[in-house]
Write a structure and sequence with these properties.
The chain is about 65% helix and about 0% strand.
């Protein structure tokens, strides 16, 4: 019997397989249809809850494996802060993300009475690796924010415009 090569399935395909299982198709037929082993189909059936949770996430449905974080509470705070900054059209660099991550870790240490959690977060380093994985997990990319018109005082703009027009008229004469 020929051995099948490994096939890596996205969460979308796994959810599709679960739907087919629910319709009553036999596991060996599903395995043949998707060119995977029967044990893969069994594992997908067993991991139904995790697959459905990944499908509810907007970023992970195209992933082939779950990307988890060791610092869930910190990531939640950092992500909420980041979303507020983006909503307010404030650019956030990776260095600034690192600084805020370290700040949130210190807040968690000071606010908790759980010694294990304090110890866990005392070793936290907001390294380049942490920030890049954080950005990957939450589909954050570095980009320029447009919409500077909201950030400039209109009175200053009209005053400058009037001065420029006055100077332009002196050149026309």
């Amino acid at each position: 019997m020929e051995r099948k090569s490994r096939t890596s399935l996205t969460f979308e395909v796994r959810a599709e397989i679960l739907t087919i299982i629910d319709k009553g198709l036999k596991q060996n037929a599903i395995a043949t249809l998707y060119n995977v082993s029967e044990s893969t189909v069994t594992n997908i059936k067993r991991d139904r809850a995790a697959i459905m949770e990944a499908m509810n996430s907007p970023t992970s449905r195209h992933w082939k494996k779950a990307r988890i974080s060791y610092y869930d509470e910190l990531e939640e705070k950092l992500l909420n802060w980041f979303r507020i900054q983006r909503h307010n059209k404030i650019e956030v660099s990776y260095a600034y993300l690192q600084e805020k991550a370290q700040e949130f870790a210190q807040q968690i240490i000071s606010s908790t009475t759980d010694e294990a959690k304090q110890l866990e977060y005392s070793y936290f380093k907001a390294s380049n690796g942490f920030i890049s994985k954080f950005c990957e997990r939450h589909d954050i990319c570095s980009r320029f924010l447009v919409g500077e018109a909201d950030s400039v005082n209109p009175v200053v703009v009209s005053n400058c415009r009037a001065k420029i027009q006055e100077k332009a008229q002196t050149y026309n004469e």
